[in-house]
Amino acid sequence: MIAITGANGNLGKATLSFLLKKTQPENIVAIVRDADKLSDYAGSGIHIHVADYENQESLEQALTGVHRLLQISASATGIRAMAQETRVVHAAVKCGVKEVVYTSTLFPEESAHFHAAHICRNTEALIRQSGMRYVFFRNSMYHETIPLFIGEAMGDGRIFYPSGTGRVSFASRKDIAEALANVLTGPAFDNSTHDITGSETFSFADVALKLKDIAGYQEAAHTDISPEDYRKGLLGFGLDEEEAGFYASMADSIRAGEFDKTHPSLEGFLGRKPLGVQEYLRGLF
Ligand SMILES: NC(=O)c1ccc[n+]([C@@H]2O[C@H](COP(=O)([O-])OP(=O)(O)OC[C@H]3O[C@@H](n4cnc5c(N)ncnc54)[C@H](OP(=O)(O)O)[C@@H]3O)[C@@H](O)[C@H]2O)c1
């Protein structure tokens, strides 16, 4: 049995749809905290198990009988996220899960600026020590984060973001999902770690130029605002300190070059070139 956590989320659902092309629905366990959020899969033959990352017992029930697990990283932040991911690993070990693919992040190092990198670093270590066989997907930023980073610039191309000249090897979430489905239905896991990236890196000045080309925005340009002004802006939008710190840490990590890395792993898992930023942006206009 193959299980996916966060199965109704963007990455989980996309992986589920690729998985259904590669294996029988009876082999799949979709783990969600609200079954209604996967109602379009009711009657599809997949097993829908309800569990909350906050509740160890529910995770143990959901993972009973599972051989292979896709552990999608938590969407919470800080200590809560660390505790949630730890519970999933402990539940998997207790239930005798043999193999786990975990969606980590690029550059999960001690020195990383990105707050989530420290959660991923901790979860990777727990999995390595657990005795389960593993594959780590150290994902770069999704294409789909671009509109989130640049906000109103989607309407005029004027990007205000504190990333300096930092570059990002953006990758398509859909491609990552397809690659995950290939791993989940592929050979025995080999305790391997992969940087999952697009084929090129882009600065936000490059993204602005793409918007100029694709959307025809004549004013398109990147302005490198100060990290402090960015953080204040986020607080002004109603984010709390932890959330604002999280998003600011993302920009800090880009500025520090922690996402400025490409690797052919994603292409290897897909057996074709990954989708590019250009194609993604074209699809939005
Ligand atoms: N590389 C990147 O650029 C990037 C960008 C964004 C996120 N991420 C990471 O990648 C993960 C997957 O991305 P995504 O786009 O699929 O995120 P998403 O759409 O926000 O999905 C998150 C999933 O986690 C589930 N979840 C949240 N809290 C839970 C809890 N307490 N118990 C059980 N399930 C819970 C959500 O369920 P509900 O619908 O019930 O909340 C949802 O299914 C994220 O969680 C985050 O760690 C990476």
Characterization of the model:
This is NAD(P)H dehydrogenase (Quinone). InterPro entries: NAD(P)-bd_dom, NAD(P)-bd_dom_sf, NmrA-type_oxidoreductase. Residues 6-186 form the NAD(P)-binding domain. It contains 12 helices and 11 strands. Strands 3-2-1-4-5-6-9 form a 7-stranded parallel sheet, sandwiched between helices. The longest helix has 17 residues, at 78-94. The protein has a domain at 2-139 and 173-196 and 262-272: Rossmann fold, CATH 3.40.50. Helix 1 links the parallel strand 1 and strand 2. It is an alpha/beta fold and 285 residues long. Helix content is 43%, strand content 16%. The structure holds NADP nicotinamide-adenine-dinucleotide phosphate.
List descriptors.
NmrA-type_oxidoreductase, globular, NAD(P)H dehydrogenase (Quinone), binds NADP nicotinamide-adenine-dinucleotide phosphate, 43% helix, NAD(P)-bd_dom_sf, NAD(P)-bd_dom, Rossmann fold, 12 helices, 285 residues, 16% strand, alpha/beta, 7-stranded parallel beta sheet
**Could you give the count of β-strands?**
11
> Could you say which structural class the secondary elements and strand pairing correspond to?
alpha/beta
CATH architectural grouping of the domain at 2-139 and 173-196 and 262-272: 3-Layer(aba) Sandwich
Distance between the termini: 40 Å
Q: Whole-number average pLDDT?
A: 96
Quaternary state of the chains: single chain
As a percent range, the share of strand residues is: 15-25%
Cα shape: globular
For this structure, what is the CATH class of the domain at 2-139 and 173-196 and 262-272?
Alpha Beta
Which molecules are bound besides the chains?
Answer: NADP nicotinamide-adenine-dinucleotide phosphate
CATH level 3 topology of the domain at 2-139 and 173-196 and 262-272: Rossmann fold
Number of helices: 12
Question: CATH-wise, what's the superfamily of the domain at 2-139 and 173-196 and 262-272?
Answer: NAD(P)-binding Rossmann-like Domain
Largest sheet composition? 7 strands, parallel
The main sheet orders its strands as 3-2-1-4-5-6-9
Order of helices and strands: EHEEHEHEHEHHEEHEEHEHHHH
- Residues in helix, %: 40-55%
InterPro entries: NAD(P)-bd_dom, NAD(P)-bd_dom_sf, NmrA-type_oxidoreductase
Domain NAD(P)-binding: 6-186
Protein name: NAD(P)H dehydrogenase (Quinone)
Pfam families: NAD_binding_10
